[in-house]
Specification:
three-stranded mixed beta sheet, metal-binding, seven-stranded mixed beta sheet, ATP binding, 5-formyltetrahydrofolate cyclo-ligase, NagB/RpiA_transferase-like, EC 6.3.3.2
Length: 221
């Protein structure tokens, strides 16, 4: 068995195990944890200084609820982009939302309906969902590679990850429920996987002192 096949099997098993736990989290717990996470994020310099950012539209259960966060970003006058899956081969783009009316017009099951404008690449940070994160800042996605491909495309095109001017870290921020944060080295990774720069939980903000390389060849895929 190849290393890649072994990693896929390990990730699949981990997703299944964690997915069972996430599906059992009471709605009230998710709401309480999400509120604490958003409170932490509000006092987080990387977030408060951002002018253009992306935030995912959360699923009904099993992950941090971002509905109030999305409204807060729109109310602040900052530029907000939401992810839209463009095809089944793992491609994703970010589409700009122009306000709450725009958000309310999105049909169920579709990430966005507006075409992105020309400055979508000027993202200061990306708020990422996941099945799980670990304390080595590894991210376990849902297995389609949408975010990893997008970040690689962004880096290859603009020769940088989302970055705030005069701020020492790059802008990949994972949002995690308590049940989604694992201990160190629990998530198997390969060269296509981007690690997080920060992870925000209901209890703490974790900062990665060793951001991943800018070398696109190490993260191509």
């Amino acid at each position: 068995m190849s290393t890649i096949q072994s990693l896929k099997i390990q990730k699949r098993a981990l997703r299944k195990a964690i997915g069972s736990k996430l599906s059992a989290i009471p709605t009230q717990s998710i709401q309480e944890q999400s509120y604490s996470i958003i409170q932490h994020l509000g006092s987080f310099p990387a977030f408060s200084r951002s002018k253009s950012l992306s935030c995912y539209l959360s699923m009904p259960s099993g992950e941090v609820d971002t509905s109030s966060l999305v409204s807060e970003i729109l109310d602040s006058g900052r530029t907000l982009f939401v992810p839209k899956i463009t095809n089944r081969s793992g491609e994703m783009e970010f589409l700009k939302l122009y306000g709450k009316a725009d958000l309310a017009s999105l049909p169920n099951g579709v990430w966005g309906i507006k075409e992105p404008d020309s400055d979508w690449q000027e993202l200061d940070l990306i708020l990422l969902p996941a099945v799980a994160f670990d304390r080595n800042f590894a991210r376990l996605g849902h297995g389609k590679g949408y975010y990893d491909r997008f970040i690689t495309k962004y880096q290859t095109t603009f020769h940088k990850k989302p970055l705030l001017e005069n701020y020492p870290f790059f802008r990949l921020v994972g949002l995690a429920l308590r049940e989604q944060l694992l201990e160190k080295e629990r998530i198997p990774i390969d060269k296509h996987d981007w690690s997080m720069d920060f992870i925000v939980t209901p209890d703490e903000v974790l900062t990665n002192s060793s951001p991943v390389s800018f070398d696109a060849s190490e993260n191509a895929g």
